[in-house]
Design brief:
By secondary structure, this protein is mainly alpha-helical. It is built from 19 helices and no strands.
């Protein structure tokens, strides 16, 4: 390697490590011009810099050029897999990760990332197998434990999921999303105390985690603290006001406290934001009807609104709906008053 080339490559590597992606691209391009016969590594590094700038198509071109001169370059297959995955070419990503593993059977990251793609396409068994191999190859790396935990949750296997989230945390991964994931799994298992502790830790790490507030709100509601639940759901709404489910959850707690005006307002907010299914309409219809009937109001407009909600809920309901009789009963009462 002559002096000009050495200087160019050293500067390119330094710029790459410092996050100067544009400068790195310029230097690696110059290195390719100076030494085109041994440019495979330069193409890979230029591809990495281009990918960091979001130009995944050009990155793929660079990795492909590297493989033309060196078909045994695992890094080129692996990084091309990353780029193809970013462009949602899942089959292309699977093929590249598989080839990286053929070239280097100890490539733990390739196993992990292939597992991510397999999970996305619904192959949970294949994903778990890939995560397990990644863990076997590099047991001190936290991320495959989290990914396998997520796959276990998707498959309804809560106990091993909790064990994997715990392993990642014990390895030093202090990440709010992992605590939320473990909290959700613990909540689904009925461990409300453990779940509440996880949500609290998530919030200590990230006070803007709406999912953690929502999880803690659910635990507070189940533990007989509805006002605490409303406080937490209010925080989720402050953080993510466009998500209908948080308005809906707060409405349910307000209805439980018999704050029917507040519940109706929140159900309306949820419905206006695209709430799915018949339940939000059912609950708003019941709240509207209860408010009229309990106050002995003969506000026909409000009763008509209640009837419309209940009728709409019934029209959206699936063939088997646990709340069907409740909806029919309330609709009959409202119609009797309107008659």
């Amino acid at each position: 390697m002559n002096g000009d080339l050495r200087t160019c490559v050293e500067r390119a590597q330094q710029r790459l490590s410092q996050g100067d992606w544009t400068g790195a691209i310029d230097d690696f391009t110059h290195a390719i011009e100076l030494d085109p016969e041994r440019a495979d590594a330069y193409y890979v590094n230029r591809g990495i810099a281009r990918a960091r700038l979001g130009d995944h198509s050009s990155a793929i071109e660079d990795y492909t050029l590297a493989l033309r001169s060196n078909p045994g370059l695992a890094a080129a297959y692996y990084n091309r897999g990353l780029a193809r995955h970013r462009l949602e070419d899942r089959q292309g990503a699977l093929d590249d990760y598989a080839q990286a593993i053929v070239v280097n059977p100890a490539h733990a990251a390739a196993y992990h990332n292939r597992g991510l793609v397999r999970a996305e396409i619904g192959d949970l068994e294949g994903a778990v197998a890939d995560y397990a191999r990644a863990i076997e190859l590099d047991p001190r790396r936290e991320r495959p434990y989290v990914s396998r935990g997520n796959a276990y949750v998707a498959g309804g296997q809560l106990r091993p999921a909790i064990a994997d989230f715990t392993a990642a945390i014990e390895l030093g991964l202090e990440e709010d999303k992992v605590y939320v994931s473990r909290g959700n799994a613990r909540a689904a298992q009925g461990d409300r105390r453990g779940a509440a502790e996880d949500y609290a830790q998530a919030l200590a790490l990230n006070p803007a985690n709406a999912s953690a507030y929502a999880g803690r709100a659910s635990m507070r509601s189940l533990d007989g603290d509805p006002r605490g639940a409303i406080e937490d759901f209010s925080k989720t709404i402050e953080l993510e006001p466009d998500l209908w489910k948080y308005w809906y959850y707060r409405a349910n707690v307000r209805a439980m406290l018999h704050d029917l005006h507040g519940a109706i307002d929140d159900y309306s907010q949820a419905i206006d934001r695209g709430a799915e299914g018949p339940d939000p309409l059912l609950n708003r219809g019941v709240a509207r009807a209860a408010l009229c009937l309990e106050t002995r109001s003969r506000d026909h407009a409000a009763l008509e609104q209640a009837a419309a909600d209940l009728e709409r809920a019934l029209s959206l309901a699936p063939a088997i709906w646990p709340s069907q009789q409740l909806a029919l009963g309330w609709l009959q009462r409202v119609r009797e008053v309107l008659a």
